[in-house]
Amino acid sequence: MAKRLTGVRLAPYTTLGLGGTARAFVEAGTADELVDAVREADAAGEPVLVLGGGSNIVVPDEGFDGLVVRVASRGVSVERDGERVLVTAESGEEWEALVARSVAEGWSGIECLSGIPGLVGSTPIQNVGAYGQEVSQTITRVRVFDRRTGEVRDLDAAECGFGYRHSVFKADPARYLVLAVTYALRPGPLSGPIGYRELAVRLGVELGERVPLADARAAVLELRAAKGMVLDPRDPDTRSAGSFFTNPVLSPEQAAELERRAAGFPRWDMPDGAVKVPAAWLIEQAGFFKGYARGSVRISTKHTLALTNPDLAATTADLLALAREVRDGVAEKFGIVLVNEPVLVGLTL
């Protein structure tokens, strides 16, 4: 049985270094302990916050008036399935360690997701993606505790409702507790087709080409580190929650309006005539440059999408004030309202 603590500060458990205390705190070292802690809290009507790596969350200065369950379950199993390797990881496994192992073992499919902080259990929630790969491309099964029915069950990929930085887990966060995730990877020495231009340029290849797995991983880590997106205690730009805003997806009508305001804007064409626009470009064009600061918080000096707490001296209120300033500035200039990517616990922009 996991030990229940009180008055635990949450800031040290987040990459932003922000957040007050938890009324109650439990570290669950197994899937059974995870289920038991959440089931008991639900039965008692106690609010629950499930905390993974703390890399994609913003916790209020007031803390959390309920039970925080920190995910610490470990374990990875591997089985061959024809031409695939099925890798099942418990939700408390470090994501970066799993990617490193897959590259070392010669399993392709997640190599371009190197350097992303956090735990395995968070990857299906956000449909984590970067540099042309998303976990939805390899996830075959997610084991969950369904808090509505009280059952542990497996959801296949279709049931996960994956979209851009979206899933059924994100749409209904109070229902599912992710316990384990299964990825179908391809054995072989080469990466998947390189699908992101910046990565292709770094590798010196054309889009669609494959490269040695280790080369793809190394290039991604170099690109992420240059943007302050690889956790490094020596780099204050990594004291963030990663990209704070998602890239907006515009309808044809919205895209036409943006073209009127900013002819030739950068874009990625999406299905059904939709257009995805880089949020970093919108932010910069609205006048918010790298290093732009408000008190103790600032935009990263390396990457416009990251809002940072560089000296660990800020409050959550400070961070949200800067986020609102950026969001409102973009809306005023372009008529586009940016949406936060990190989970805001009891907070709104």
Quick gist of this model?
It contains 9 helices and 22 strands. With 349 residues, the protein is of the alpha+beta class.
What report would you give on this structure?
It is a single chain. The chain contains nine helices and 22 strands. By secondary structure, the protein is of the alpha+beta class. The chain has three domains: about 5-70, Uridine Diphospho-n-acetylenolpyruvylglucosamine Reductase, domain 2 (2-Layer Sandwich), CATH 3.30.43.10; about 75-225, Uridine Diphospho-n-acetylenolpyruvylglucosamine Reductase, domain 3, CATH 3.30.465; about 235-345, UDP-N-acetylenolpyruvoylglucosamine reductase, C-terminal domain (Uridine Diphospho-n-acetylenolpyruvylglucosamine Reductase, domain 1, Alpha-Beta Complex), CATH 3.90.78.10. Strands 7, 8, 9, 12, 13 and 14 form a six-stranded antiparallel sheet that branches. It is globular, with a radius of gyration of 20 Å. Pathway: Cell wall biogenesis; peptidoglycan biosynthesis. One of its GO terms (cellular component) is cytosol. It comes from Thermostaphylospora chromogena. Keywords: Cell cycle, Cell division, Cell shape, Cell wall biogenesis/degradation, Cytoplasm, FAD, Flavoprotein, NADP, Oxidoreductase, Peptidoglycan synthesis.
